[in-house]
Amino acid sequence: MDKNSWNKLLEPDSVTVAPTLLGCYLVRQLNGQRVVGKIVETEAYHQRDAASHSYRGQTPRNSVMFGPPGFAYVYFTYGMHYCMNVVTGQPGEGSAVLIRALEPLEGLELMQENRGGKSESELTNGPAKLCQALGVDKRLNGHDLSAPSLQLVLGSPLPTSRIVQTTRIGIRHDTDKPWRFYIKDNPFVSKLS
DNA sequence: CCGGTGATGCCCT
DNA sequence: GGGCATCACCGGT
After folding, report:
1. Where are the domains of chain A?
2. Strand B proximal to A60 Cβ, under 7 A
3. What is the C-alpha end-to-end distance of chain A, expressed in Å?
4. A76 touches strand B (CB under 7 A)
5. pTM, two decimal places
6. Which of A14, A75, A101, A149 could form a disulfide with A41 if both were Cys (CB 3.0 to 4.6 A apart)?
7. A192 pLDDT exceeds 70?
8. Which residues contact A6 (CB under 8 A, 6 or more apart)?
9. Strand A95-106 versus strand A81-88 pairing type
10. A78 CB less than 7 Å from any atom of strand B
11. What is the DSSP string of chain A?
């Protein structure tokens, strides 16, 4: 995928981009092995959104969110977990899409090792779980997602009929905004609803 | 299966 | 010092 079509895909606002990332792939090179998952659940965050890290403006922690699209915003939370976003929108906007769940496709053994021997269904069905499975931590904050060590790869677009749109999970503010998207009936979505 | 809760570090006020 | 875009474990059903 060339850089121009890449930017085309990610430059709209995060609410538009979030459902289009469903069915795309995250490809990770880890210890010489390929680890691949299909994105099955996303959430959009942006600057006029009280639940977003970017809501109160740019800080050292969230600065990657305000940069160009196509980079990884990886943050640390609850003293022990990492979560990853795909930055969207124009530079200066402060918007991103949180990757909440993957369907494991390749490198399941390594994912299982990284996840302390959990069963297949528990490897990547949550935003911090998938980061642990893929070995994603703060070193990948600001990483260019067209570069091989962690790559976002376009998939076939999903028909609207296979996408479910609901409110977001695990937030205190703007809980009524329908900015969570997941693939209907996919068993690797983080929480049933 | 379900809800409650403790773990644990860092950023921002 | 508060609060967190979470998870795993525990006990009761």
Report:
1. 3-183
2. yes
3. 34
4. yes
5. 0.96
6. A101
7. no
8. A70, A146
9. antiparallel
10. yes
11. --HHHHHHHHSS-HHHHHHHTTT-EEEEEETTEEEEEEEEEEEEE-TT-TTSTTTT---TTTGGGGS-TTBEEEEEETTTEEEEEEEESSTTS-EEEEEEEEEEEE-HHHHHHHTTT--GGGSSSSHHHHHHHHT--GGGTT-BTTSTTEEEE--PPPPGGGEEEE--SS-SS-TT---EEEETT-TTSSS--
Instruction: Find the Å distance, CA of residue A118 to C1' of nucleotide C5.
Output: 23
Contact A101, A182 (CB under 8 A): yes
| Nearest Cα to Cα of residue A163 among A45, A41, A43 | A41
Report, at the CATH architecture level, how domain A3-183 is classified: Roll (3.10)
Q: Is residue A187 within 8 Å of residue A121, measured between CB atoms?
A: yes
| pLDDT tens-place string over residues A89-144 | 999 999 999 999 999 999 999 999 999 999 999 999 999 999 999 999 999 999 99
